[in-house]
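Collaborator request, handled under Task 6.
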Amino acid sequence: MGRAHEVRKASMEKTAALKSALYGRAAREIYMAAKGGSSDPNSNLVLRSAMDKAKSNHIPADVIARAIKKAEGGEVENYIFNRYEGYGPGNSMIVVDSLTSNVNRAIAEIRDVFNKNGGKIAQAGAVSHSFIPCSIFAFEGHTVDEIVDLLLEVDVEIIDITLEYDQTVVYGGFSSFNAIKKVLDNFGILEYFQAETTLKPNEEIILDDNDVKAQFEKLIDKLNELEDVQEVYHNVEL
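Structure tokens returned to the collaborator:
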């Protein structure tokens, strides 16, 4: 999935709209984290996690700084979190997380994108059972054996440690993000290709039909362009 993250990130940067959405969602997440606690990432673990995630997605430092300054300035914006589930082309499974100030707008726009691009919204729980909440870290410069030995010495929940496309990838418990990140940081890992919490599909599918795959990619891109969409997860191998 480390490589899959690189593919997703490249896809997100294909258009100005997608890039703007990526910056906007990082800013919202950082604002919410700073607003809910201290603006100091050393004492606010939620904020530190949001900043780590933004940096791994190559969000510019000034976008991060503005979001924190906005929270410090006392400006109040109320965002509501909702999760939507659905099916896409090729019977793919999709989970959409929304962070919005207008729930009615969010669901209407998300539903419209599904309907116009070969998908359909499903009931809560329809597909989320096929995903595992976890934390993920992808980096280079250290072998799988080194990281296994390192993390076996500490009390953190580890799901798997693998080599994917020359990247060492650590899958950990969802709530173990900060603990694992601290161990890896102290070990001297300075740059992450991915450092975030995510939903990992139990199994990935391959869309062999080029037309179906193109329609699926269009659906994902359109969801990612929406202002109110925070994260999009799916079970398709890209």
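The cover message to the collaborator said: "The beta strands are 80-88, 92-100, 120-122, 131-139, 158-164, 167-173, 194-201, 229-234. Residues 85 and 126 are 7 Å apart (CA to CA). Please let us know whether this matches your experimental observations."
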